[in-house]
């Protein structure tokens, strides 16, 4: 279980985040959703350990990790732009981080992740030979074989569209279930958050505007900002939300 208790972030005289209180259960998919500049990426970076907390505490499985260095937290991130090495093939990208991993992982375990993500036919391809969806799956595989305690994802679908996007959404859901892996995703897209998450944290102006299930947010928005933000952002995607949640937003 991951807990953020009274977490705030300030830069000089500017408050970026204020009194963030969140509890995330093991194996949940939780999306951090909000407009640009709302503070959602800062929350992700504080969980990862990339950004220091100004006040408050972060606990993981009851242990205070607020000041634990990023490398010792055991969390890992999938970046928006894949961050793959262009001079390496897909397989070498996947196993690149293992040379710095203290706990050994067997070839059978590596193969399990590769097969789970349907990457076996693509292992010898260089990065430029991979499709966007294949690049994202390689990036996810590279993260999974490090066996993170929490999987963090920064806009993992933003560079994808159509069938590729739906495929990766399904993979993320399968990963959380198959490996009982807590997964936290930053997104600006309500449709992504509402259709693939167990819980959604809506962030606005450095505060949590609402934290609940997709059904709660759709059917019982806690304030005008939440409803307005969801409605404005959905546009043509509203049909997908209607299919899942009924007439609340029609």
UniProtKB/TrEMBL annotation:
<dbReference type="GO" id="GO:0005524">
    <property type="term" value="F:ATP binding"/>
</dbReference>
<keyword id="KW-0067">ATP-binding</keyword>
<dbReference type="InterPro" id="IPR003439">
    <property type="entry name" value="ABC_transporter-like_ATP-bd"/>
</dbReference>
<keyword id="KW-0813">Transport</keyword>
<keyword id="KW-1003">Cell membrane</keyword>
<dbReference type="InterPro" id="IPR017871">
    <property type="entry name" value="ABC_transporter-like_CS"/>
</dbReference>
<keyword id="KW-0472">Membrane</keyword>
<keyword id="KW-0408">Iron</keyword>
<keyword id="KW-0406">Ion transport</keyword>
<keyword id="KW-0410">Iron transport</keyword>
<feature type="domain" description="ABC transporter">
    <location>
        <begin position="2"/>
        <end position="230"/>
    </location>
</feature>
<protein>
    <submittedName>
        <fullName>ABC transporter ATP-binding protein</fullName>
    </submittedName>
</protein>
<dbReference type="InterPro" id="IPR027417">
    <property type="entry name" value="P-loop_NTPase"/>
</dbReference>
<keyword id="KW-0547">Nucleotide-binding</keyword>
<dbReference type="InterPro" id="IPR050093">
    <property type="entry name" value="ABC_SmlMolc_Importer"/>
</dbReference>
<dbReference type="InterPro" id="IPR003593">
    <property type="entry name" value="AAA+_ATPase"/>
</dbReference>
<dbReference type="InterPro" id="IPR015853">
    <property type="entry name" value="ABC_transpr_FbpC"/>
</dbReference>
<dbReference type="Pfam" id="PF00005">
    <property type="entry name" value="ABC_tran"/>
</dbReference>
């Amino acid at each position: 279980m991951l807990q953020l208790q009274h977490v705030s972030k300030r830069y000089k005289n500017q408050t970026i985040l204020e009194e963030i209180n969140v509890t995330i259960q093991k194996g949940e998919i939780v999306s951090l959703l909000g407009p640009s500049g709302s503070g959602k990426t800062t929350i992700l970076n504080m969980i990862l350990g990339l950004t220091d907390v100004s006040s408050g505490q972060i606990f993981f499985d009851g242990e205070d990790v607020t000041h634990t260095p990023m490398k010792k937290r055991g969390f890992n991130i999938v970046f928006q732009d894949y961050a793959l090495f262009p001079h390496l093939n897909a397989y070498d990208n996947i196993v690149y981080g293992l040379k710095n991993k203290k706990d050994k992982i067997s070839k059978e375990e590596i193969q399990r992740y590769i097969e789970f993500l349907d990457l076996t036919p693509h292992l010898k391809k260089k990065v430029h030979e991979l499709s966007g969806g294949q690049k994202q799956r390689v990036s996810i595989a590279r993260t999974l074989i490090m066996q993170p305690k929490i999987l963090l994802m920064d806009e993992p679908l933003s560079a994808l569209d159509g069938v590729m996007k739906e495929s990766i959404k399904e993979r993320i859901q399968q990963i959380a279930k198959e490996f009982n892996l807590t997964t936290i995703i930053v997104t600006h897209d309500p449709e992504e958050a509402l259709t693939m998450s167990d819980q959604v944290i809506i962030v606005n102006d450095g505060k949590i505007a609402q934290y609940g299930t997709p059904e709660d947010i759709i059917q019982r928005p806690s304030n005008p900002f939440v409803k307005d933000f969801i409605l404005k952002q959905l546009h043509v995607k509203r049909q997908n939300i209607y299919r899942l949640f009924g007439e609340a937003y029609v």
